[in-house]
Structure formats: C-alpha cells, structure tokens
Amino acid sequence: MVPTDARSRWNWTGGILEDKRITHYWDEKKMVGRFYADKDPETADPDVVWDAFYLYGPEAEWKTKPEPLIVTGFTIEDELDKLKSSIAPLLK
Questions:
Q1: Digit-coded pLDDT (tens) for 17-74
Q2: Closest by alpha carbon to 65, among 42, 40, 91?
Q3: Which residues contact 29 (CB under 8 A, 6 or more apart)?
Q4: Beta strands of the chain (E only): which ranges?
Q5: What distance in Å separates the CA atoms of residue 89 and residue 33, rounded to the nearest whole number?
Q6: What is the distance between the alpha carbons of residues 32 and 34, in angstroms, rounded to a whole number?
Q7: pTM above the 0.90 mark?
C-alpha cells in the first residue's frame, strides 16, 4: 500500500499469516484499503489502510458495509496476540 508496492515484489508474511486456511489477496487498486481508511482514523495513513486487520465471523455479510465486526487492530505484528485470541473461538 505504499508507492513502491508491486505484486511481483510482495511475498513477505514473516511466517505470521501462513496457514492453509488463509488466503492472501492483492488489492491492486487499493479499494479495500481506501474503504477502511474512510472508516478507521487510527491507522497511520489517512488515504489507505495497510498492515491492519479486521476480523469478521462466519455470520458476517457485506451489504452496504461488512458487519458485524469482531475486532480490528493496527499493526498486525503489534496486535498479533489480540488477533490470535479473537480468532481462537472461531476455529473451534
């Protein structure tokens, strides 16, 4: 989500988000990052959100907006424990 981003250069997950249940998507036009930037003023970049997570459960739907939101955090590395503890009940 920075000017030097390119799909061909993106391969880092640091072992943090590697699981057969995880799918990584490339948002070339930054549509999702811009959507969340309008909703989440606490992120570092006011134009596009990156290195953040938004966790929704299996009942979530995206009609006009995704809901219900379980938890959000920024940065993923800084709030990894929060993400892990929020995901754990969903995996049972």
A1: 677 777 777 788 888 888 888 776 666 677 888 888 999 999 999 888 889 999 999 8
A2: 40
A3: none
A4: 52-62, 66-74
A5: 26
A6: 5
A7: no
